[in-house]
Amino acid sequence: MVTDPPPAGGASTQPHPYARVAVIGGGAWGTALAAVARRAGREVRLWGRDAAVCAAIAGGGRNDKYLPGIALPAGIAATDDLGRALDGAQAVLLVTPSATVREMCARLRPHLPARVPIALCAKGIEVHTGLLLAQVVTEELPGHPVGALSGPSFAHEAAKGFPTAVTVAFPFTYEDRLKPRAATAVRLAYTLSSPVFRPYISDDLTGVEVGGAVKNVIAIACGMMTGAGFAENTRAALITRGINEMKTLAQALGGRRETVTGLSGAGDLTLTCSSQTSRNMSLGVQLGQGLARAECFDGRPVVVEGEVNAVSVIDLARRIGVRMPICEAVHAVLHDGAPLRETFARLWSSPLEAEPNMLDIYIDHPADLSAIPDFAGETR
Ligand SMILES: NC(=O)c1ccc[n+]([C@@H]2O[C@H](COP(=O)([O-])OP(=O)(O)OC[C@H]3O[C@@H](n4cnc5c(N)ncnc54)[C@H](O)[C@@H]3O)[C@@H](O)[C@H]2O)c1
Ligand SMILES: O=P(O)(O)OC[C@H](O)CO
């Protein structure tokens, strides 16, 4: 447990916020986080690779490409010049898609102020290496404290100022435990906090990152089942068993099971699996309805992290011997051409087992896939 008594002599007990925040990534979440930081009273520089988007944000307070119709708070300095965005930055939020994190680090390297903390706001695990994104950044940018910001947060809601809570996680040093108000996670949480944005603090970076990556895959599973005509019982079972897959992977990688019950795990899973606002859930629904991948989202290119995450999560889980049957099913449908209904029906015929941490037992369960009715098209 971390405690720090208030200092004697009436000195302020507030952490020191990071006064200047650089947000790297001008998409939906990067723009929303710039709005969050601005609303919290910080000086904000937003880097995007699209000059027209940057001009619209800086000039008109809008990013209609990624957040249509939303008026952003005044004063976000948006630029396509990385050097300008990072000049004097005291904290960096990295918000480009997970697959771009390593290349973005190389681009950031020449411009980063020394020892500036970097918070990953993308959700994923690197394909091939199996590294969590914070490990990728630590490898590429040694000497910087690296953490993550994650949780149930649709960008358009956070940008509009709807109350949102997330987790900010950085490893805690011995010193941080003695003086938690000076810890990076605490300072960054305070930096971004406002009456409508509430960051919770964690030192379990692994648990937080695993939650963010796995929830995307489980959301695709929920979407697939919904699209194929299954109902709420099925979705609730996938969410609950999905949390168990997250816990098992987090623990195997050195994270804590209870972190997965927090905002970055169960919280984000609940949000993402409940609404087709989620691109992951929405992709699953469209595939469940029988659309080909190329037809989904009317053929528009849309960032669906769970597609990539399915590959990296399953590759990692197999390597370290962790069972993740729901993620395996999603992977099989997305990447091995397995038939969707049969693949998920098979999950219901897998051996009976006990709830977590109770009894190590597997009992054969008769597999009769034809016993599961075809609900597609039925009106409920
Ligand atoms: N949108 C949300 O509600 C939300 C919420 C929380 C977390 N996230 C996470 O944030 C990350 C980004 O998602 P998003 O919603 O902002 O995506 P987005 O599609 O809205 O925007 C992606 C941004 O990344 C940029 N980009 C793409 N490839 C790039 C590259 N190679 N180099 C530099 N920039 C590149 C694009 O120009 C764009 O500005 C994802 O990992 C996502 O899971 C999104
Ligand atoms: O639209 P999604 O599925 O990428 O989800 C966005 C956020 O991760 C929700 O917290």
TrEMBL record:
NADPH binds at residues 29, 49, 66, 123, 155, 279, 303, 305. It catalyses: sn-glycerol 3-phosphate + NAD(+) = dihydroxyacetone phosphate + NADH + H(+); sn-glycerol 3-phosphate + NADP(+) = dihydroxyacetone phosphate + NADPH + H(+). SUPFAM superfamilies: 6-phosphogluconate dehydrogenase C-terminal domain-like, NAD(P)-binding Rossmann-fold domains. GO terms for cellular component: cytosol. Residues 204-343 form the Glycerol-3-phosphate dehydrogenase NAD-dependent C-terminal domain. NAD(+) binds at residues 25-30, 155, 279. Residues 21-170 form the Glycerol-3-phosphate dehydrogenase NAD-dependent N-terminal domain. InterPro entries: 6-PGluconate_DH-like_C_sf, 6PGD_dom2, G3P_DH_NAD-dep, G3P_DH_NAD-dep_C, G3P_DH_NAD-dep_N, NAD(P)-bd_dom_sf. Sn-glycerol 3-phosphate binds at residues 123, 151, 153, 215, 268, 278-280. The keyword Lipid biosynthesis applies. It is found in: Cytoplasm. The active site is at 215 (proton acceptor). GO terms for molecular function: glycerol-3-phosphate dehydrogenase [NAD(P)+] activity; NAD binding. HAMAP family: NAD_Glyc3P_dehydrog. Belongs to the NAD-dependent glycerol-3-phosphate dehydrogenase family. This is Glycerol-3-phosphate dehydrogenase [NAD(P)+].
